[in-house]
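Subject: sequence -> structure tokens, single chain

Hey, anyone have a minute? Need the predicted structure for the following. Not urgent.
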Amino acid sequence: MLESLERHPMLSASISKDKSIEELEGRRWPAPPEGSTSLVRGVHALRRRAIEDLSVEDLRRLIGQDVGLQWLLPVALDLFRATAPQEAETGWFDDDLLSAVLTRNADTWRSAPRLARHLNETVGMLTDLSPHLREEVRAFRSASSDALQGRTGP
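Reply:
Had a minute. Here:
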């Protein structure tokens, strides 16, 4: 397992984590509309926070809303890879963030096959996943089979 970890440098190494998604995108969203839900207001606020200051729950919320995936998926995948060995030992894994990552649209993984393969390898290290997560892993593998096998594009 250590050999596998050594083969994969940090995916997020080139991301300026001291910057926010807004700064990285170079695009500021307008204020949320009057009467917006707490989710919408929260996502707007989180886009302005430096990536290094986002909690696991913040990552889950943003990824679950398909916001900043270009920067946040590598950060989340690095987190999974760093914690997978110890969490496989204890039989516990934070289902919420993993679920948010696994359930992204298949086009997300087709456009980032390296990330898809990294995620697939990492979930292979995990043991004792809940039945719900096992189903999400199966669906992810099925939906992103082209990316996982190195076949992308039309």
